[in-house]
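Following up on my earlier thread - several people asked me to post the actual chain instead of describing it. Fair enough. Here it is, all 214 residues.
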Amino acid sequence: MPRGFLAVTKLKLTKPNMKMKKEKKPKTPESYKTRTKTPTLRNLLLGPTAKTNLRDTGLGALYCLPDDLLHDILSLLDATDLAVFSTASKSTYVFSSHDPLWRSLVLSKFEGQFSFVHSWKYTYINSLTGKPPPVPESLKITNFYSDYLFQSYLCANMEFKPEWLKRDNIQRRRGISVEEFISCFKEPNKPVLLEGCIDTWPALKKWTRGYQTR
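Reply from S.P.:
Thanks for posting it. Predicted structure:
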């Protein structure tokens, strides 16, 4: 067999040494990513170095108000006033950007006539203007700690076990003995609803309306 034929055959069977270029995925804008969590006060107290909570220094005279009370006050503002409040400081920006505030504004103003866009704040702007809002640069704020603002992040990102979603998943027992209660529920630390515990109480028959008015 001619040498040229072998050379051509070998060349055809050899895999080309080429690396395929991976297509670059478009980056998600920082402001459209999942909201970052507000660290809890535990991070402030147990941190490696002493820190100052930006929450207190940026609220001025409002720093003495608990976070939940301040949230209730801000919930009375409309969207314009809330946006103006956010420009006062980094702390006011964090509080006024709390998504539950904007969720209430969306539901009260647009009711069911809206499409959710990335967050409730952007949903409000999108529903008001009829077009997606421009993507601003991400505003990174550090040294801000709040247990109250952390709760919404925890609820939004915590995984739910399937059994948590079942209805009436706690056992109901009637006439259970002390020994059975200890062995079946107290020691394994399981919840139980005890029924009929006060069926024999005299007050159920004695405490009538006439008895109470004597």
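The radius of gyration is 31 Å. That should answer part of your original question.
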